[in-house]
Design goal:
Aspartate Aminotransferase, domain 1, 12 helices, Aspartate Aminotransferase, domain 2, globular, four-stranded mixed sheet, 448 residues, alpha/beta
Amino acid sequence: MTESDRPTTPVEETPRGRSLPHWSDSDGEIPTLVRGDGVRVYDDEGTEYLDFASQLYCVNAGHSEETIVEAMTEQARKIPYVSSSKHNDARTELARRLAEIAPGDLSEVYFAISGSEANEAAVQFARAEQDAPKVLTRWRSYHGATYGAAALTGDPETRATVERYAATSGSGKFLPPIPAAFDAESPEDLAEKAADHLEFVIRNEGPDSVAAVLMEPVGGTSGAFPAPPGYFERVRDLCDEYDILLISDEVITGFGRCGDWFGIEAEEVQPDMITFAKGVTSAYAPLAGVLVRDSLGDSLREEGIDVGQTFAGHPVACAAGVAAMDAYDDRLLDNARAVAPTLESELRALGDTHEEVCDVRGRGLLWAVEFADPATGDPFVDPWAGEEDEGGDNPVMTVKEAATDAGVLVGGGRPGFQLVVAPPLCADEEDVREAVGVLDDATGEVFG
């Protein structure tokens, strides 16, 4: 047994000095993860888990990509920090690399720290450029949990939390292109009806008041739903017709997660901005940003940017980003594309085995498994309808817990009648079959 294989001595939480976990349940047990290797993580008692949530859909390169660690170490030795108001060679190199892979004329980069802050920055740029106050986002979306980003988020649980004591403003909502929202006879019909609905919202909000439309190309924690064919082309046309900017939120879908550098590439449309975070460094260091088109970048340079963040574009994080992009380009993007069909087929087989699995959807290595009562077609529990508050047990979360107990981590979707499966890009077919096999057993354990 090597030193890295030895279980770490447990660190006990004491009444003083305890950390406050995010998205925590006061009744739940929280594992203490102390080590990672590839697609696996280990807790302080040596228990092994297959990480098929990539933690928070961010550790795209896996937990032991030494090239990223080495790049971060080298940068820290050279100069550990450079003010975000200055230039730095690592920062400049990452901006150049991002411009090379970005679609169309997105070649200017504004760095931030988190996805929430990147989305807020993109919205600020859009409002200033268009001299308009509103940004339209979809119901059942997640764009962050800071006050500005929570206003954009269509998840009512997040908005209710931040609006408990102070109102948010400046956004409007429209329905996502999902079958549950429209009575459509085909994917093409769904695309048309959903786009017509968006135009209705634009016209009733007042086109001159709308600065931007902000969407994920594939739904993230809201359920990994891709858009039906033709939807994004129509959205782009609507934005052009009404002089509205299109922002693609790629915080989850970027950097190979959906098979391309950015998820919007599969839609063959040109956004005006792309927001990114998470996978840009494979989460080895916090980093985010906004890619903007040339003309908008020129405008921002001319007008100047009067706000910023101390740690935005941190040199160590930028060095991690360059190394992560190398790893994606060298092998991980190709591996993700090769493994994705196996993940899809294995997950779809769950629907053939368990009648409670009502839908399996996604793209690349981002998938959702949705559950419903086969007798009614309705969710067993809809948390957003307040059913959990009334004491209703949610069997979908019980499936998630059973999978965790059996050594596989998956994500809980928004709302909680679905699970999200998103392994690191280094996962192989054996990992996929093992993880989905555990999820299969967990589903059978809960539903019988």
